[in-house]
């Protein structure tokens, strides 16, 4: 990936647009241009199998570039949890090459590799379960990961491995190269310097490169794969549907990654399921921080301008709200980490911090939330916010959102309403704008639009218990909060390319309206044999179909999966603080088999006591055989809550003759209920049980 320098954007207030000429293209960046000039073909790299060394933790062997005789060191690791690590560095660099620090939680636990076959041109290693093998081909060098007869991934199959070795400038080479490597002179003389290797100029800025050229690249081929996900716009990426001979002709996707410097260090997570990959990735880089109640977005504030200045040291140190501050510095991981650590220290290690950044890297999820940067009040920017946050969620950064309404320019009333409706169903929800844009508070767009915006915010707040439970789960497991449909339906090819709708957890499907003047959207409801319920009308729809949905300006197409139970707080309050002890409403969406399950999670919403002292409530809710029950998922935890169950709404059932509540102490009581026969919705009123208690409701 490219290393991006912070750029000062000169904004024309009349147009409020970014000057694209301030951004380098690949052709204007010397290392990228050199890498792009490399064409697929025979790789000059050869594996020297006679240099193989095998230990309990790794396998090493040397690679040689037959064009210049420079040697590289290949390191192969089998890591705990079905992960393979491939590392390539210079064998004897002039100086240590840059290696990204502080990303991994710790040194990964290794497992022994074993050689199962070897001949003069190849080496076969066992990767553990399910007949997984790593094949090292010597000439040309190539790696193949296979499972039985199936090739899962190939490295350098197109011959695009390129590793620019560190070197001394030719005008000082006699002084810079010692006698021990002087034999390299003949080969180095043949490699002519190209423009931009030692310095290059972009506009008025000249960038010197005392270390010289050091770019790297490696290609990956994925036989049988037609869809890849999360490839950023500016990455070198080529999707080529050619055909390779494996057991039969299959489509193949080819991807190439390049970097201006550093070394090659690749972690290949072999799953096999998406949930397994998230766990594997989280074991390397960590999980998303568990958010605190005061930072339940929505937030209308911005701390990026002059209003962030404090005029009193006492105020800056004592204002508790600053623990929910935003952080906009572009120096990425370290300042975000330092800010989070500082907030924790200021509270004596008690309070969870909230730190927001737009510059981040692998592992940034450990320190806080992100937003997608300075977007514009354009329909295209609303639309692209969905795949942006979906991609980030897949790499562990679940707490993601976009500036509602767009940072630059002035949104129309329609765009602003649609953006609030979409943002209300994204993990991070904030309205934010440039200081010179016209005011855009929700009450400035007419009473009708104000009411629409208010309703979307109320829907957001009602679902805070569900969001909070999802964040607790992603903190534990690394599963993304906002996820593509294929994460839950990996065998449904129809979900692979869908980017205009998504799942919140596994139980809510959202299809925001992102087109101007739209009168309808087409949503795909996955799952053969499953059912989905419109959360606004309770209408039931079968899964495994594309459904056309007429929309008005009040429409936010959202569906609850049949077989799920979602906890909400439906009382309208001024803030989440006022909601802390409010009662819950359980929305029980029955599957085709008449069952459902879900979770309820509660803690103090502020501190680390949920981890350090097991101060939380975690309940499993299940409906089966006309019985709804709540049981404790964490019997060792100790926490009390004043919240209780106010209402239970069951979709897709039939009318009972009676409803009985059974408490943990054995007492029973009859519950009042209403049944809507048209929608098949049963409403149970005021069970009145504590949210942390065991209880059972029986329908007869």
UniProtKB/TrEMBL annotation:
The keyword Protease does not apply. Transmembrane segments: none annotated. InterPro entries: GH (IPR017853), Glyco_hydro_31_C (IPR048395), Glyco_hydro_31_N_dom (IPR025887), Glyco_hydro_31_TIM (IPR000322), Glyco_hydro_b (IPR013780). Residues 478-566 form the Glycosyl hydrolase family 31 C-terminal domain. Residues 326-470 form the Glycoside hydrolase family 31 TIM barrel domain. Residues 1-17 form the signal peptide. One of its GO terms (biological process) is carbohydrate metabolic process. Keywords: Glycosidase, Hydrolase, Signal. Residues 74-235 form the Glycoside hydrolase family 31 N-terminal domain. One of its GO terms (cellular component) is glucosidase II complex. SUPFAM superfamilies: (Trans)glycosidases (SSF51445), Glycosyl hydrolase domain (SSF51011). GO terms for molecular function: glucan 1,3-alpha-glucosidase activity. PANTHER family: ALPHA-GLUCOSIDASE, NEUTRAL ALPHA-GLUCOSIDASE AB. Belongs to the glycosyl hydrolase 31 family. This is Neutral alpha-glucosidase AB-like. It comes from Sinocyclocheilus rhinocerous.
């Amino acid at each position: 990936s490219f290393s991006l320098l912070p750029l000062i954007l000169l904004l024309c207030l009349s147009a409020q647009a970014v000057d694209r000429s301030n951004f380098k293209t690949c052709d204007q960046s010397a290392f990228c241009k050199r890498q792009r000039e490399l064409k697929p073909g025979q790789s000059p790299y050869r594996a020297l199998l006679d240099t193989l060394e095998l230990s309990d933790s790794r396998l090493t062997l040397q690679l040689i570039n037959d064009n210049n005789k420079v040697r590289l060191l290949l390191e192969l690791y089998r890591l705990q949890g079905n992960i393979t690590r491939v590392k390539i560095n210079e064998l004897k660099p002039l100086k240590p090459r840059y290696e990204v620090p502080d990303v991994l939680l710790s040194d990964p636990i290794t497992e022994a590799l074993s050689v199962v076959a070897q001949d003069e041109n190849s080496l076969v290693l066992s990767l553990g379960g399910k007949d997984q093998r790593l094949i090292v081909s010597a000439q040309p060098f190539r790696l193949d990961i296979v499972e039985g007869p199936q090739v899962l991934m190939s490295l350098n199959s197109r011959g695009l491995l390129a590793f620019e070795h560190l070197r001394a400038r030719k005008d000082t080479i006699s002084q810079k190269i010692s006698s021990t490597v002087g034999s390299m002179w003949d080969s180095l003389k043949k490699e002519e310097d190209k423009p931009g290797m030692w310095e290059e100029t972009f506009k008025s800025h000249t960038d010197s490169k005392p270390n010289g050229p050091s770019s790297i690249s490696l290609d990956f081929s994925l036989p049988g794969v037609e869809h890849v996900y999360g490839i950023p716009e500016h990455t070198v990426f080529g999707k080529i549907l050619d055909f390779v001979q494996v057991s039969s002709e299959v489509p193949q996707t080819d991807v190439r990654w390049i970097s201006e410097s550093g070394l090659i260090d690749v972690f290949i997570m072999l799953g096999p399921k998406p949930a397994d990959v998230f766990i594997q990735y989280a074991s390397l880089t960590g999980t998303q921080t568990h958010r605190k109640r005061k930072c339940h977005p929505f937030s209308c504030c911005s701390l990026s301008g002059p209003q962030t200045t404090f005029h009193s040291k006492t105020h800056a140190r004592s204002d508790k709200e600053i623990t929910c501050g935003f952080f906009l510095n572009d120096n990425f991981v370290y300042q975000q980490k330092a800010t989070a650590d500082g907030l924790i220290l200021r509270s004596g290690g008690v309070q969870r911090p909230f730190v927001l950044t737009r510059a981040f890297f692998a592992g940034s999820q450990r320190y806080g939330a992100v937003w997608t940067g300075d977007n514009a009040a354009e329909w295209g920017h609303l639309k692209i916010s969905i795949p942006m946050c979906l991609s980030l969620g897949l790499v562990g950064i679940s707490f993601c959102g976009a500036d509602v309404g767009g940072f630059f320019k002035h949104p129309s009333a329609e765009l602003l309403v649609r953006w609030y409706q979409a943002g209300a169903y994204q993990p991070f929800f904030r309205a934010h704008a440039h200081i010179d844009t016209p005011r855009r508070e929700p009450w400035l767009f007419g009473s009708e639009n104000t009411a629409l915006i208010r309703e979307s915010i109320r829907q957001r707040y009602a679902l805070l218990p569900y969001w909070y439970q999802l964040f607790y789960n992603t903190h534990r497991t690394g599963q993304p909060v906002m996820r593509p449909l294929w994460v839950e339906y990996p065998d449904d090819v129809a979900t692979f390319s869908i980017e205009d709708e998504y799942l919140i957890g596994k139980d809510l499907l959202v299809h925001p309206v992102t087109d101007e003047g739209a009168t309808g959207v087409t949503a795909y409801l996955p799952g053969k044999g499953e059912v989905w319920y419109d959360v606004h009308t309770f209408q039931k729809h079968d899964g495994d179909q594309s459904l056309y949905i007429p929309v008005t300006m009040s429409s936010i197409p959202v569906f609850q999966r049949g077989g799920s139970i979602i906890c909400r707080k439906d009382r309208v309050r001024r803030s989440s603080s006022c909601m802390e002890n409010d009662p819950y409403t359980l929305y029980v969406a029955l599957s085709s088999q008449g069952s459902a399950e879900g979770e309820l999670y509660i803690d103090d919403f502020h501190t680390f006591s949920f981890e350090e002292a097991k101060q939380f409530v975690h309940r499993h809710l299940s409906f089966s055989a006309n019985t709804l029950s709540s049981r404790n998922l964490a019997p060792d935890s100790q926490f009390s809550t004043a919240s209780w169950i106010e209402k239970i709404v069951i979709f897709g059932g039939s009318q009972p003759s009676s409803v009985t509540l059974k408490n943990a102490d054995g007492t029973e009581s009859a519950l009042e209920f209403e049944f809507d026969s048209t929608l098949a919705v049963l409403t149970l009123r005021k069970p009145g049980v504590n949210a942390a208690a065991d209880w059972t409701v029986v329908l007869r």
